[in-house]
Amino acid sequence: MSQRLSTKDTPAILVGHGLPEYTLITPDEIEAHLPTLLKEIRREFDDHEKSLQQKLSNNQDLKWEEVMIPLNHLSERLRWSWGTVCHLNGVCNSPELRKVHAKQQPEVVRLTNHIGQSKVLHLAITNIKESNYKSLDKAQKRILEAELLSMTNRGVGLDNSSKKSFNVDSERLAQLSTIFSNNVLDATNQWSLLLTKSSEIEGLPPRALKVLASAAKEAGDSFQEDGSDPTAEHGPWRLGLDMPRYIPFITYCTNRSLRELVYRAHVKRASHGDINNEPLIEEILVLRNKQAKRLGYSNWAELSLANKMANNVEEVETLLDELRVAAIPSAQNELKEMQDCASRHGAPEAFDLKPWDISYWAECLRKEHFELNQEKLRPWFPLDQVLDGLFLLCERLFNIAIEAADGKAPIWNDDVRFFKVKEINGSEIAAFYLDPFSRPSSKRGGAWMDECISRSKTTNGKTVLPVAYLICNQTPPTKDTPSLMSFEEVETLFHEFGHGLQHMLTNVDYPEAAGINNVEWDAVELPSQFMENWCLHRKTFMSIAKHWKTGEHLPEKEYEKLLQNRTFNSGFSTLRQIHFALTDIKLHSQWNEGLGITPNQLHRQIAETTTVIPPIVEDHFLCAFSHIFAGGYAAGYYSYKWAEVLSADAFAAFEEAGMDDISKLKTTGMLFRQTILSQGGSQSPSEIFEAFRGRPANTKALIRHSGFSSKSD
User: How far is CA 19 from the centre of its chain?
Assistant: First the structure.
């Protein structure tokens, strides 16, 4: 795998292949050189278009090689450079980078629209389909079909007037997405609260107090007479809305009034004052509807579903409602159990559970049920050990070896690690970056996998190996301890690694269909959710759960508690996902300017049947719903549940083979690799799933894994 490819003559942002030199790709360099690249790509595409036009005029039958390979070469140059800028904007966010990203984004959108709206290119691809379709392999056929649909949805068939309006709105939507994301990050960082009294942090575990004290130190807080730094034991402590500080506080702090304060701040992020996403949401929805109707669709949801497994909105809502009906009784019972738990612990008779109480009393109830304190389990999950166990699992299932290669690749932050993936025989097949820790001031929240390099073939037939970005936001190490993970953070790491496996283990040589590319959005979560299931597989679990100081295994009784915990509050967690998914699909299929209600009001109407505790007045959850307003999940958030059906059924194949039979696990694992992980977008997900499972997917495994009765389903 080539490394450090920038030269004195080629600016780092223009290299276009290999691993980027991240520290050399500064805002100044981006601003100076990216416009040149965009002009070059446009000029080369226009030359390609003229060549195709001439051949079409001569009634030539076009071949894949003369149309698609040059097109892919141009697309990959753009993806490499602009993808690096977007990656850095997510993990090294700064005012300067934001500014240059916002400035260049419209030009990138214009270029992609120019290519996607080329009538000559559309005719050329159609020509291949009509004249040489039988000579193409399955992957090439799927790529052609996907490209034609993509071009249709980019406006290739629009007249000049409509196309001009379409392009203006495309640029505006891209701009709004970036503003929305930046607003969420700014609103999260803007709010903090200095805590100085022990009564304000009562109940918080030591690990959480260290994080709060570290934040206070970073902010320059100190109330020590001798001027010493804040400490976990004595404070002061600075509370914030980023996940490593917010989640432990809302879960463990006994001070109800402070839980309420931080909860209210969290749910109204980016919804008021100078940072307000509410008007952006309406503008985004209005523009998306306009775009969809210009293209001949009824609404954005219909457009979105045109390239997904789900056939229509009704099919999506049917699945979600099926799961909602199954989850409601469980959620109502779970709420009553939490209410009873609060009463047992001295809550007043008239005590009424509020949203800021749910995590706290759920944790208390969890301790009662299983005597499980997940925060106390952190010492058994140091990051390096979890990685070793994850890598060993991949070796057992997929016959690969993963080796640390730190220092052998350029990085963007000292936290970042680099790994190589090899076949057992030693041949290198892929690599990945891991950026595991939260950096609230410069790194957006959440966890994700993205492409650094896609698998492809060079013109001389050499294979370009894939490289993935795996980004998490887990608890960082402190001065005297490594990163000790919560079990949820372990699951998140396994989840993102599942995405990474599909990217890295692909055997498709067309970048347009390699890895996660050209995989329907509602199937792309299958490998990630599948990998989460292995966190509680006994052999895997015992390999990762060892005390970071003593090396002792987590006691068996604690493992049993985590197994029981798998379905704890599953009604609540399922309803939460259903609520998000239904809100998303209805906003993009039902909401419009003439409806007479705001998006937030529609969200509240949906909450009447998808929550057991209604949202509070200040709840403006949509204003921080980045998945659908700043990510790729618009009218697609249901994909998590759709893919969960697939992933649960896929994992059931391993259960049926026998979880303790190493030989059968390997056989099933290699079949999973050869189908789900290797085929990428070269075939339809339904075909690939049936090749693995021998039949279509069904919901039985998910219902069973969730702890719901088949009868309620």
Answer: 22
Can you read off the two tokens belonging to residue 381?
């999950």
Cα separation, 671 vs 693, whole angstroms: 9
State how far the Cα of 411 lies from the Cα of 405, in Å rounded to an integer: 12
Same domain, 144 and 38: yes
Q: Are 495 and 466 in contact (CB under 8 A)?
A: no
For 184-200, the pLDDT digits (tens) are: 999 999 999 999 999 99
Q: What CATH number does residue 18 fall under?
A: 1.20.1050.40
Query: What distance in Å separates the CA atoms of residue 661 and residue 672, rounded to the nearest whole number?
Result: 16
Q: Which of these is catalytic: 496, 532, 558, 644? A: 496
Mean confidence (pLDDT) of the chain: 93
pLDDT of residue 475: 86
Q: Do 108 and 220 have their domain in common?
A: no
Preceding peptide of 348 cis, ω within 30°: no
Mean pLDDT, residues 695-709 taken together: 84
Residue 219 lies inside a defined structural domain of this protein: yes
Query: Does some domain include residue 118?
Result: yes
Classify residue 237: in a domain, yes or no: yes
What three-state secondary structure class fits 373? coil
Q: What are the tens digits of pLDDT across the range 46-99?
A: 999 999 999 999 999 999 999 999 999 999 999 999 999 999 999 999 999 999
pLDDT-derived band at 8, boundaries 50, 70, 90: low
Nearest by Cα to 55 from 115, 132, 162: 132
Statement to judge: residues 16 and 149 lie in one domain: yes
Q: Clarify whether residues 18 and 122 are in a common domain.
A: yes
Beta bridge partner(s), residue 449 = 470
Q: Is 2 helix (H, G, I), strand (E, B) or coil?
A: coil
Phi/psi-derived region of residue 316, left when phi > 0, alpha when psi is between -120 and 50, beta in every other case: alpha
d(CA 534, CA 156): 45
Q: Which residues contact 93 (CB under 8 A, 6 or more apart)?
A: 182, 185, 442, 443, 444
Which one-letter DSSP state was computed for residue 508? -
pLDDT score recorded for residue 4 = 39
| Tally of domains in the chain | 2
143 and 214 inside one domain? no
> Which pLDDT does position 154 carry in this prediction?
94
Q: Is 496 a catalytic residue?
A: yes
Tell me which H or E stretch contains 435.
strand 428-437
Same domain? For 105 and 196 the reply is no
Residues 120 and 198 in one domain: no
Domain span at residue 200? 191-269
* Residues 143 and 54 occupy one common structural domain: yes
* Range scoring the smallest mean pLDDT among 276-285, 387-396, 636-645: 636-645
Whole-prediction pTM: 0.83
Name the token pair of 522: 């509602």
Indicate the SS3 state at residue 638.
coil
pLDDT for res 713: 34
- Residue 46 covered by a domain: yes
